[in-house]
Structure formats: C-alpha cells, structure tokens
Amino acid sequence: KDEAWVRDELVERLEKGIPPIQLCLHERDFEAGKSITSNIVDEGIIGSRNVIVVVAQHFIDSSWCRFEFELAQSWLVLGRNTSIIIIILEDVEDKKIRRVLGLHKYLKKNTYLKWKRNALSNVRFWTRLRKAIILKK
User: Fold this and answer.
1) What is the mean pLDDT of residues 16-24?
2) Which residues 6+ apart lie within 8 Å of 93 measured at CB?
C-alpha cells in the first residue's frame, strides 16, 4: 500500500544513487508462476544481504508484510548474514506495533530510521540509510 513511497523515494534514491543499491521488489523481481511464499524466501530473504522493513499502518494491516518480517527475524536468529533495517514511514500506535510478532521488541533493542517530511531530515535519512546498507555488505 505504500508502494508509491517505495517507488518514488526508496527505489529512486537507492537504485539510482552512487553507488547504486539493488532492491528486490515483488512486482519486478519475483518469479512468475512461483508461489508468493517461495518468492519471499528465495528472492526476498535468502537472496538479500539486508531486509528493509517499511513500517506504516499498511504494514501492520498486511499479513504478507508481517510474514516477511517474521521470516527475516527467523533468518537473523539462524545466524545468516542478513540484517534488518527498519524505516518508520509514519507513526503507528504502540498497541498496533505489538500486533506484529517481535516488532515492538526489535524496535526497543535496535536503532531504526524515521522518515520525516522535511529537506534537512531527508538528507540525514538518506545518508544514514545508505551507510547502514553499505556497511552490512
């Protein structure tokens, strides 16, 4: 549901930035005819060095998004070379965040990025996000 932000901001800034950072997007990178679950595991989690989780109300409401986050956490626990980078796109009530298995605890124990709608904050946001992604490679 927040695909416009992902497409217009995240893809634009990361894939067209220097150095370019390749993202895995379901509409572009998932294999046609393969189950969604298999694509999430094979293309989205196993095939990635980082998992970027964009937290917004739509994320909380989506069973697929929650599944992807839970899977990424499991992959992390298994000691795989993957990290989770959280972006808070919009404020979500704490009680709703608690509905996503492990998200509340993850936010309490890990640093995350928060999207703000002003130019100065955006410069810092993109610098910090690129640094987090590149350092994890």
Assistant:
1) 92
2) none
**Which DSSP category does 56 fall into?**
S
Phi–psi pair at 86, nearest 5 degrees: -100, 130
Residue 85 contacts residue 129 (beta carbons within 8 Å): yes
Q: Which of 39, 9, 13 is nearest to 27 (CA)?
A: 39
Do 57 and 5 touch, CB atoms closer than 8 A?
A: no
Q: How confident is the model at residue 5 (pLDDT cuts 50, 70, 90)?
A: very high
Nearest to 86 by CA among 57, 54, 59, 127: 54
Tokens of 57: 């109300």
| Chain-centre distance for alpha carbon 66 | 11
